[in-house]
Design brief:
The chain contains two helices and no strands. By secondary structure, the protein is mainly α. The protein has a domain of 50 residues. α1 packs antiparallel against α2. The longest helix is centred in the middle third of the chain and has 43 residues.
Length: 78
Amino acid sequence: MMYGLYNDYGWGMGWFGGSIMMIIFWALFIALIVWVVREVGGKHSRSGSQAIDILKERYAKGEISKEEFESKKKDLLT
């Protein structure tokens, strides 16, 4: 005999809600993957940008010549 959402064994909607928990699990898993990809990709592009900023600062202070600046900039961008 069935009692609403519950069967004779008292498990209710199954293991932690069955399909609802599966949807939540996959949503969290996908969110984790997206976060990891953004973190790894973001750090790579930030470090290149930071290096160019330092190079521009050194050139502005007169620590390096224009030729050195152009050469190092070319190396950083390739």
